[in-house]
Amino acid sequence: MERILKAGGLQQIGGKLLRAILIIFFTYLISRVPLSGGYFSAAIGLFAYLVSRNTLHLYLVVPAIAAILPYFPRGYDAWGEVAALCVCGLIFVSGRKLRMAVWHQSIISAAVTIVCVSIYRLATATVYQLTVAGLIGEAVLVFCFFHLFDAFFNVLERRKAGGPGNRTGEPAAYIEAAGFLYGNFAKHIELLSLPVIGLLLICGAGLDFLIWPAIVFLALAGLSCVDLAQAVMMVSAAGCFAALAGQEQWGFLLTILIALCLGTIGRQINIPMGVALFATACAVFSQIKSGLILGVDVHCLVIAIAAFSALYWRFGKELRGFFRMFAAVQEFDRGHPQNQIEWLLQAQAREMETLAELYGTYVDRRAALANQFRMTQQMLETLQWEMTRPAKLSQAAAHEKFEVQTAVAQYAASGTINGDCCGWQDIGHGKTALILSDGMGKGKKAASESLMVSRTILTLLKSGVTTELALKMMNTIMMIKEDEDSFATVDLAIIDRRSGKARFYKIGAAPTLLRRKEHVEELRLSAVPLGIVNGLRIDFVEVVLKRGDWIIMMSDGVSDGGSGKGLLREISEIAVSIRSEDPQIMCDLILDQAADSYIGKERDDLSVMVAHV
Q1: To 10 degrees, the CA torsion angle through 445, 446, 451, 453?
Q2: What does DSSP assign to residue 501?
Q3: Cβ–Cβ under 8 Å, residues 234 and 191
Q4: What φ, ψ does residue 454 adopt, rounded to 5°?
Q5: Are 530 and 566 within 8 A, CB to CB?
Q6: What's the confidence (pLDDT) of residue 376?
Q7: What is the enclosing helix (H) or strand (E) of 324?
């Protein structure tokens, strides 16, 4: 088991290392792009967002500054932006325990940029090179880029998690858009993040000459993958970015938008007809002589159409899925009763999101309400997601590769009431939750405490609340109880039956044993039980399971044993020696071993839960 788990650990380390390399490369490319007169606004927005999201990202200041430094010999004076990078990093690292919404963080980043650039210009007597409009413009760009990166990474997180309610960062409070655009403004920010960040990467790679071919490609992709309004939004955002990058071609942009509208007519027949009408419109406009240069360069048009045709012919389904992921495309008819319900759920979720951000700004007991509102928001989003994707849910159930068989064995310290509570439940989306809670003390009071903790956490998980939020909410409940000495441990395992990945959360809990063939490995995490400290930090260990693996969870009465020296070694030997596939047999034998260690001593509550994959 040790060798196999080490191999799984190496895979996890390799995956984390690859992600770190990708984020370093991503940061380097983005930071290489000067905009609007030499401002590195995208670098500040990206770095500030990543550090506010996770303070471990502070190391990204190195690739960000390394990307900016080569511009100094070219006449760029960006020491103010470099200082803003460093100050933003220090602020978000030192204030990591403060609860700030995304729009708070973005305003702080913009304000830091103004202050740092102004101080640098004053200190170097180059303030004459700075205009008020330019300074405010750079701050606005930092603010906008912060939100664009937030939206972009949140879309990727939802795709990875497979559903709603899995965003790591605090969601921003947006207003609802008017007119023909429905939904909240956050969805439109997500849509705009795709073309802007894509063009940032193109510029960062030194391929500025591909900006307008990329915009034409974007128009063709929007023509085939999303509706007209969303395609116009993406192309308009891309055209504005091109102007900021120094390739201002408003005539080109106008031509593409008009051609896009005409191509939508042809799309009613089929996609090739829509592309043909788009190309024809671009060619016709290029023949018009006016003060504004219209049309699209023929080489640009040919490159874009060829690239789009090749990708759409080979990866049409994947391309549509990628764009619709950012556009949140779904068939929507407000007149249909089900869609009316979905619309109502979406609106209520937004209201809960706003209240969660409002109460999250408090530092007293009112802050506990933020978790309640956030849980309600996640429940509403999960319900809406399940209503709109019944086919996807049934398909996901069909792809489950593993089955989890579970058994429990318990001895009470005295009498018939055990103060521990064990349980397991299918929480949806192909996941099984196993939980073991040990309430303080013994008897009825401890049993009541552990039952409340276990039942609440399992119910919240099944309702769509994220694991971290469910545990934090349970800790808040334990903290506000009148009984000051009330606390409970939580040993929680979430098993994904589709991928085999398992996450283990331990809040003051005993070690968990993982048996694979003839080897056993211990899983430990240091954390105080629920109800002792406010602001509980949630950590987990992730393991990739295989068929035939065993998960052995136990209370501290079992792991410590009657001698106080611990029974984990003996329990491991018993687990390896058992050849039966019945988890109940393993439970009973381990519990008997633990009970025998208490002969002649006062016995603690004993609980063992075993899951066989």
Answers
A1: 110
A2: E
A3: yes
A4: -65, -50
A5: no
A6: 77
A7: helix 298-327
Q: What are phi and psi of 422, to 5 degrees?
A: -120, 145
Read off the pLDDT band of 30 (50, 70, 90): very high
Helices assigned H by DSSP within 480-581? 556-560, 568-577
pLDDT at 345 over 50: yes
**Among the ranges 2-11, 312-321, 492-501, which has the highest mean pLDDT value?**
492-501
Banded pLDDT at 176 (limits 50, 70, 90) = very low
Cα–Cα nearest to 20, from 48, 69, 54: 54
Q: What is the DSSP letter of 181?
A: -
Q: In this structure, what are the phi and psi dihedrals at residue 90, rounded to the nearest 5 degrees?
A: -65, -40
What is the DSSP secondary-structure string of 224-250?
Answer: HHS-HHHHHHHHHHHHHHHHHTT---H
Selection from 425, 499, 437 nearest residue 462 by Cα: 425
Amino acid identity at 512: T
Q: Of 507, 511, 484, which Cα lies nearest the Cα of 575?
A: 511
Q: How does DSSP classify residue 12?
A: H
Token reading at 479: 């903290």
φ, ψ dihedrals at 246, nearest 5°: 90, 10
Please list the helix, strand and coil fractions of the chain in percent, rounded to the nearest 5, in that order.
60, 10, 30
How buried is residue 456: exposed, middle or buried, by Cβ count under 10 Å (0-12/13-18/19+)?
middle
Alpha helices in 463-550, H assignment, sequence order: 467-479
| Alpha carbon of residue 49 to chain centroid | 13
Please, what is the average pLDDT of the chain? 79
Residue 126 is classified by DSSP as -
Confirm if 295 and 283 have CB atoms less than 8 A apart.
yes
**pLDDT tens across 544-589, in order?**
888 889 999 988 888 877 665 667 888 888 888 888 888 898 888 8
**Contact indicator for 379, 159 with CB cutoff of 8 Å:** no
- Express each pLDDT in 266-285 by its tens digit: 888 888 888 888 888 888 88
165 torsion bin: left (phi>0), alpha (psi -120 to 50), beta (else): left
In the block, which residue shows the tokens 């309430």? 439
pLDDT of 38: 79
Task: Check pLDDT > 80 for residue 451.
Answer: yes
**Residues, the chain, total?**
613
CB atoms within 10 A of CB 514: 24
Q: How far apart are CA 507 and CA 471, in angstroms?
A: 9
Q: Which two tokens stand for residue 335?
A: 């007149």
* Rounded (10°) angle between helices 228-244 and 250-267: 160
